[in-house]
Amino acid sequence: MLNDLRRKQLRVFLRNRIAVVGFFLTLLLILIAFFAGYVAPYDPNEQNVYSRLTSPDLKHWFGTDSYGRDTLSRVIHGSRISLAVGVCSIIFGMVIGSLAGMFAAFDRGKIGNLIMRAVDVMMCFPAEIFAILFLVMIGQGMDKLIFAIGVVMAPRFARLSYGTTLSIREREYIEAARALGAKRPRIVLKHIFPNILGEILVMCSLWTATAIRVEANLSFLGMGVPPPTATWGNMVRTGVSQLTNAPWLSIFPGLAIMVAVLAFNLIGDGLRDVMDPKLQQG
Amino acid sequence: MIKYSIRRILLTIPLLLVVLSMVFVFVRLAPGDPAMAMLGQYATQEGLDALRKQMGLDAPMWLQYLRFLGDLLRGDLGVSMLNGVPVVDQLRVVLPYTLELTVSAMVLGVLLGVPMGVYTALRRNRSADYSGRVVSLVGISIPSFFLGILLLYVFSVRMDLFPVLGAGRDGDLGDRLYHLVLPTLSLGLIMTSYIMRMTRSSMLNVLNEDFVRTAKSKGLQERIVVYKHAFMNALIPVVSVLGIYFIINLGSSIMTEIVFSRPGLGKLMVLAMKQRDYVVLQSVMVIYATLAIFINLFVDLIYGLIDPRIKYG
Amino acid sequence: MKNDILLEVRDLHTHFYTDEGLVKAADGIDITIKKGKTLGLVGESGCGKSVTALSIMRLIQEPPGKIVKGEILFDDQNLLKLSEAKMRHIRGNRISMIFQEPMTSLNPLLRCGNQIAEAISLHQGVSNRDARAKAVEMLQKVGIPDPEGRAREYPHQMSGGMRQRVMIAMALSCNPELMIADEPTTALDVSIQAQILALMNQLKEEFGASILLITHDLGVIADMAQSVAVMYAGKIVEYVDVVRLFDNPMHPYSVGLMESIPKMDEVVPEDKILRTIPGVVPSLYNLPSGCYFQERCNEAFDACGKKVPPLIEIEPGHLLRCWKYGQQ
Ligand SMILES: Nc1ncnc2c1ncn2[C@@H]1O[C@H](COP(=O)(O)OP(=O)(O)OP(=O)(O)O)[C@@H](O)[C@H]1O
Ligand code: SF4
Ligand SMILES: [Mg+2]
Questions:
Q1: Which of A74, B197, C4, C183 would be a feasible disulfide site paired with A230, CB 3.0-4.6 Å?
Q2: ipTM value greater than 0.90
Q3: Model's pTM, two decimal places?
């Protein structure tokens, strides 16, 4: 029965061309990030005085910057930062957010209430502002960036899992499990978590897209992983001042951000169709 | 309705208080002593102590907190650590720029997004819907600074149709509007994508509702069923998320202001960050959060006005 | 066509094309509704009752659904052949419909009075003011106290029973010749159910309308209908007048349904019906070859598995689809 459902969902997913494109795009990006050292034609930090600010040609597909560094290689290496920060911060945010939300839904007492009010407060800030608040406090760096973006994304997971858990906990089988004396963590693990997993999965990919975008924004503002490490955001940041004479410096890394964010959005969009049959029939 | 509004307004107060406190805590916990940052590395111990005292940094934390709140209540946001200009004056200058940008982007988003969402919902799974879906997905994926850069590159650098930088001469409305076009487009098209997607799915949901079938069973024309019955109901969830979208929009506007070199809260914030001017930074954060809270309040009040279930709840 | 017949459905096939495959929700339906009479349509959940009703209104959602074959004769015209504009003129005017779910069937953003008036001004060409006055009058007719005040209320301000009365007022507001009531009381409290049914009966007499009454509940049929069509898995299996059905149900499925009626006048929840007939409704996605009822029929014999039995008239006015009664 469950397997039938899963198989049907897989079929729907595969028939959704948008989602499949997103899936392969993501796979490709992950492979590129993983094998960046092999894929990139040059060392991303190698300077070359003889080819400064060359426009895209066969030798340097994406051109070079004012130090003669190969933009393509830098974009390829930059993918590591974007993907790592995006994925890690979402995992981090998901774990603390969902746990907090599930706890609040189960507790429904003072502490639960407090958690959800805190969530409301955190959602008042634009994501970038909230992340900057954190970064000002804890300082810059990759680990701190992951932490900050994770904390920024956590309230969304908390709201999501709070809502779903509330609706599920009313169902009979949970009541039954509770009547049989099952412990709370056990109920959460055995009954609630598998039930909200689908929805969390959908949102995970949509919010990974958000996290990658937020990382790029912070990087663009100079709050990301500091140079000389190449990140897409700081490449655009330094490139934009040369938009008139060397547009490739900002346009290619910008495109890369867009494609990465898009890839995760495509998957999330497709997954949502699978989960919500009402919206995809016909 | 009145009860709902009052409750909603009262709810804002603790929210505001908590948000302000958070800003306070975060900025105070930031590494580096503001006084040190101000005087630079050659400061003497005496100079530092004097400045700390002057800034009230020697007082216990709770007293500083109370002073912070008290100052806020009186509308006093302190003076910039770097140039001694009162922060309120700085904010008064830049706030209108940010508001005109974010509001016009939002308006553009609603004006384009809602009709496009309805259109694609009614042509579900046909080519218009399909391409609309792809385009709007690109729209929610593109970072605002990148869309800004693309627009700048195409319309200003290549075609020379629009100005490259700045917000236009003060007092010259035409010039201001002229400078507003590209930034508004770059934020507004992103908003359009969000609103279009929301409208589409809301419309599809509503078209499946029982009351739409009832409307059809009365013999009403398709047009009336769609616009009078379905569309009006589909708008309600769209309105309810406009607040969230505005917050996204506000966040994106920071980058847009940087790209177009427009004065505004975002530009001020980034400058304050660079200079470690915590007084300004703290105030900008406060303004951003307050704006977001009030926008949410505003949207909720409108929501109550258009939904009879709340109005006559 | 005999002139005491108001509506005749002939060989109606309505299919749904879903992800799991083809669903023949109405698989060759034949029913006849006489003028001023009530026809009951009974059957278990999912057997295609609502689809039949919506097909008559031509409100099947397309896609995924489609009326693939058949005729619906109403006043000497085939509704399936009418243009959409002509069909609109019939909907809500000459044929109206009441839905199962009063809680969700009214537009939450419009005042109840206006929702009724909308149909009146559309079909009777009267001014908005007159239409609204007529709406208030209709609300009074369906027994709503303070009709003027209620007309200004929104659906969420009313109880389920009140909303269903509004639906009935709406359905009757243009003096329709046929009113289709799709389980009008299933969602309501027991005490309200009886009131609503009595109201429908009374108004039917007053307006001289016919009713197609869809229900799970044979008790309701006994009170309301003159004839009954018993439906199973997209097909009519027995069609007869109420007296003969209750005296002597002949189709094994009808017999099962009759046995499931509790002795007193209490109302049966649907799951009780299922319990007394062994087995479950077959999935419409893969029906057995032969008689669809065979797996649950305790009188099945070898002929039943070979071919679907035809619907035949075994005595005047009594149609049956069962091999047990042979083939004339
Ligand atoms: N929109 C639809 N999409 C796909 N299948 C549908 C749709 N509407 C109805 N069906 C199929 O048609 C069959 C008959 O549905 P119908 O609503 O007519 O049942 P019913 O007899 O009215 O049941 P109930 O008593 O529960 O109202 C169902 O089994 C369902 O699978
Ligand atoms: S045809 Fe056979 S299986 Fe079907 S109802 Fe009649 S006796 Fe039962
Ligand atoms: Mg039904």
A1: A74
A2: no
A3: 0.88
